[in-house]
Amino acid sequence: MNLTSCPFEKEIRQRLALGQWPDACPQELRTHVSGCRSCGDLVLVSEAFHHARVESVAAARPVPPAILIWRAQLRKRNAAVKRVSLPLLGAQIFAFAVAQVAAAGFAGFEARNGVAWLTWSYWHDWFVQLPQAAAAQWDSLSFASLAGSAWSWMVLVPALTMVVLLGGVAVYFATDKP
Amino acid sequence: MSWEFTLPNSWAGGVQDAAGAGAADPAMENEAFAGFYERSARPLWAYLARSSADPALADDLMQESYVRFLCAEGAPALATDGEAAARLYLFRIGTNLLRDHWRRPRAASIEEIPEEFFVARGQATQTDAQILLEPAMRQMKPRERQMLWLAHAEGYSHREIAKVMGLNAASIRLLLFRARRKIAALLRARAADDGRKS
């Protein structure tokens, strides 16, 4: 395929752009176009597209620009909210991970005493004794005493985990979008 | 009031961000955008409608193009980069949206297509240019339609077309030459057919 452009092509292109074709063009240029395939194609296609553009531009029904500005603002705001929500999601995942670790630790600690803790009666007794045990320990409640008491850790770790977990859940519901 | 509506403007972002960091007055920016929109919306719609042969799709894509233009952080600013650069950027967004649309699997049933889509194609309402050009355009590849429109309707140079379409400027020349030759042959054939019938 010969890609060498015709020397008249540039002039024809300019005249087409200025709307001078064909009436304001010299006869020799018109004669050339009728004989040159490349320039003939250029004129034919340019005129067809020019007419099509005029029709299409007239047919366009653009919406008011304020609607687009509002939609863009809304989209930007949503994107910003999403960006801000990311650290919160991280906190939720962290809380869940802590809860899992605490649960595993608790299960491991209790597993040393056998599998009795898996039974219903074990937990029933544990809950019944819990107020008395808590009252007994209330006076000596300090970090030092807590650190020294395995039973206290047993209560404290799940309690803290529960707080963290519930906090994560609360944050999740607060940020959850419909 | 939900907490997300109390975000500082630097987080939430206003329209002024789209026009660059130097923008001071959002109302003025909105005014500049409205002027730009007034001058560029119809040519963009014409490009999208002719390239896709679907006016309803062109409506959607035109709106989406402007929304993306306003949201884009790297978009040329009307005040500093000029309207020509902004217009090229806008056409590029439109081109990419069209490409995405064509790549998507088609699942629309005939009931979902609006009635105007068919009415607009009635022979009675078609003009001479549509009767000649539309059948020829339908036989062209999407990329050829886009390229021809940008070159011959919008008057863009090879370099500008390359920017809009994301192609190499050197290859545009050859692709455009082939596309022009192809559509010219189709137009001549169509004109000859019409001449024989009448």
Any descriptors?
heterodimer, A: 178 residues, mainly alpha, 2 domains, 7 helices, B: 198 residues, Arc Repressor Mutant, subunit A, 68% helix, 0% strand, elongated, disordered N terminus
The main β sheet of chain B shows up as: none
Counting structural domains of chain B, the number is: 2
Count of folded domains of chain A: 2
pLDDT under 50 segments of chain B (min length 5)? 1-24, 118-125
> Which oligomeric state applies?
heterodimer
What is the H/E order of chain A?
A: HHHHHHH
Strands of chain A, total number: 0
Q: Which percent bin holds the helix content of chain B?
A: 55-70%
> What is the β-strand count of chain B?
0
**Euclidean distance between termini CA atoms of chain A:** 60 Å
Biggest pleated-sheet summary of chain A: none
Characterize the overall form of chain A.
rod-shaped
Proportion of beta-strand residues of chain A = under 5%
Low-confidence stretches of chain A: none
Given the helix and strand composition of chain B, which structural class is it?
mainly alpha
Q: Report the principal-axis shape of chain B.
A: elongated
Structural class of chain A: mainly alpha
Describe this structure in words.
The complex is a heterodimer of chains A (178) and B (198). Chain A has 178 residues and is mainly alpha-helical. Helix content of chain A is 79%, strand content 0%. Chain A has two domains: 9-59, no CATH class; 82-175, no CATH class. Chain A has helices spanning 9-18, 27-35, 37-59, 65-111, 120-138, 143-148, 150-175. With 198 residues, chain B is mainly α. Chain B contains nine helices and no strands. The longest helix of chain B is centred in the last third of the chain and has 29 residues, at 169-197. Chain B is elongated, with a radius of gyration of 20 Å. Mean pLDDT of chain B is 80; it is low at 1-24 and 118-125. Chains A and B meet through helix 3 and helix 4 of A and helix 2, helix 3, helix 6, helix 7 and helix 9 of B.
